Amino acid sequence: MSRTLALRKEAGEKGRVVLRSPLVGIWSDQPEAGTMVGPGSPAGTLRRLADRVALVVPDGVTGTVETVEVRELQAAIGFGDVLFAVHETVGAGSAKKSDAVRRDGRAVVAPTDGVYYRSPSPGAKGYVAVGDRVVAGQAVGLIEVMKTFSPIVYGGASLPERGKVVALLAQDGEEVRAGQPLVEVE
Fold first, then answer.
1. CA–CA separation, 60 and 40 (whole Å)
2. Given this model, what pLDDT does residue 142 score?
3. Contacts of 69 (CB under 8 A, 6+ apart)
4. CA 137/CA 84 separation, integer angstroms
5. Is 72 helix (H, G, I), strand (E, B) or coil?
6. In 12-147, where do the E strands start and end?
7. What is the pTM assigned to this prediction?
8. What pLDDT, on a 0 to 100 scale, did the predictor assign at position 69?
9. Mean pLDDT of the region 119-137
10. What mean pLDDT, rounded, does the chain reach?
11. Residues 25 and 44: beta-carbon distance below 8 Å
């Protein structure tokens, strides 16, 4: 099962915010130095036994990722360990919209790592477009894992029974990570 959890933040010196691990586990998919991030941006994946937690940047943090220390591709992390720092950008909202879910919406997230597709085949009409109304159980995209295509359906505990698509957050054919926001709804 996958869930999403925000990193713990702590004010640093001179416009820096230090982001710390909210749990113990194996951290992977770290953001690269120089990447612009904002509230809801992916901050890696934390594995704990059979549980996979998608880490995101917390509210109130917008800026550029700074490398705190060099880590392996997969690193053992303790509760409260420093993962990375963000050099805050003046004028919040400078992070790309595709990297962060806006505060007024909710999102359908990738159920697993894979390649995301907006339509059933190349050149076909997309499952959803901005402005479309969606209902629980409706397909909003496909995810490909090892040449197996599975539908991504609208619904879940954090989403209302019906919604309106306000943004498509992932590109067609883009590699996505478990927990990454794909379709924003209100």
1. 10
2. 92
3. 82
4. 38
5. coil
6. 16-20, 25-28, 36-37, 42-48, 51-56, 63-66, 75-77, 82-88, 106-109, 114-117, 133-135, 139-145
7. 0.49
8. 58
9. 89
10. 79
11. no
> What whole-number distance in Å separates Cα of residue 88 and Cα of residue 36?
10
Q: What does the alpha-carbon distance between residue 178 and residue 71 come to, in Å, rounded to a whole number?
A: 21
Q: Is 152:143 a contact under the CB 8 Å cutoff?
A: yes
Q: Return d(Cα 80, Cα 23) in angstroms, integer.
A: 7
Nearest residue to 56 (alpha-carbon basis) of 109, 93, 13: 109
In single-letter form, the type of residue at position 183 comes to V
- Judge contact between 39 and 60, C-beta under 8 A: yes
Range list of H helices, the chain? none
* Separation of alpha carbons 28 and 81, rounded Å: 14
pLDDT tens digits for range 43-101: 888 888 878 888 888 887 888 888 655 555 677 888 888 888 888 765 443 334 334 44
Single out the residue of 81, 19, 72, 24 nearest to residue 47, CA to CA: 24
Tokens of 22: 């909210």
CA 175 to chain centre: 12
